[in-house]
Amino acid sequence: MEIIHQLSHPAPVARKHSKLTRTRHFHPLIQCQYKPIVHFIHKNKPRSSSATGPVRAGWFLGLGDKKKNVVEMPEIVKAGDPVLHEPAREVRPEEIGSERVQKIIDDMVKVMRGAPGVGLAAPQIGIPLKIIVLEDTEEYISYAPKEETKAQDRRPFDLLVIVNPTLQKKGNKSALFFEGCLSVDGFRGMVERFLDVEVTGFDRYGQPIKITASGWQARILQHECDHLEGTLYVDKMIKRTFRTVENLQLPLANGCPKLGVK
Ligand SMILES: [Zn+2]
C-alpha cells in the first residue's frame, strides 16, 4: 500500500524538492542498477524511469543518500500481472525458516521501504505466497496534514511480518478513505474498510502471532490481506471516486458517499 499522503499534497512537495529530483544522487531506487530476482516480470519491457525514479523519490527527501547503495531488489509487479489477480498459497510450516522464504521476506521489507510504502504483499514482488509486511513511521506520518492523519486514526507502528495471515473484523464500524497501491501506480480510489480487525498468523520465525489493530493500521492489514486473495483495492473501491493522483483534491462527484468514519 502506498503512503497515502505522498499524493495528498503533490504540488507543494514537488515544488519544494523540484531541484533535488533532478540531481544525480536522487536516483536511489528501482532504476537500471536493479537486478530483478523475479525474472518473469517485465522480461521484455525496458525498465521505466518515470514514476518509480526521481519523481517518486523527490517527495521523500533525506533518504536518497542512505538508500542509493542498494543494488538488488525485485520489481514491484503492476496490475494486470496474473499473480496479482489470483489467490496466493499458504506457506507450509516447514518452509517458513527456509533460506528462500527468509530471502523473500527480506526482499519485501526492502521493496516496501524503498518504494516507500506502508505495506506490501508477496504477490507484489511476483511471489504467490501468503506473506505480508507492513510498517508506518513517525516520519511518514509527519508528511501528512495533521487533521488528515487524525481523521484516519493513523499512528506509527513497528515493522510487522505476517506469514499466512487470517483477518477477522471486530465490530461493524467502518470508514471511507482514499487508498493507493504500489501495484496501481498513480491512482487513488475510496474504499470502505473495517475500523477494527484482528489478524492471526505466524511471524518470520514460525511463531504464532495475533495482531489487534484499528484505524489506519487496520486498513493496511485489510489491503494487504486482500492482495493474498488476488483482490486489489480497485476491485472494492467506490468506482466513481477513482482518480489520478493529480486529481486527488478535487471534490467528489454528486452521489458519492462522504469521506470519514461511517
Ligand atoms: Zn496494494
TrEMBL record:
Transmembrane segments: none
Reactions accelerated catalytically: N-terminal N-formyl-L-methionyl-[peptide] + H2O = N-terminal L-methionyl-[peptide] + formate
One Pfam family named in its UniProt record: Pep_deformylase
EC number: 3.5.1.88
Chief location bin: plastid
Keyword Disulfide bond: no
Highest taxon of the lineage: Eukaryota
A GO term for molecular function: peptide deformylase activity
InterPro entries: Peptide_deformylase, Peptide_deformylase_sf
Localization in the cell: Plastid, Chloroplast
CDD domains listed in its UniProt record: Pep_deformylase
Record key words, sorted: Chloroplast, Hydrolase, Metal-binding, Plastid, Protein biosynthesis, Transit peptide
Cellular component, GO annotation: chloroplast; mitochondrion
BP term (GO), one: translation
Family the entry assigns: Belongs to the polypeptide deformylase family.
Primary role: Removes the formyl group from the N-terminal Met of newly synthesized proteins.
Protein name: Peptide deformylase
Lineage of source species: Eukaryota, Viridiplantae, Streptophyta, Embryophyta, Tracheophyta
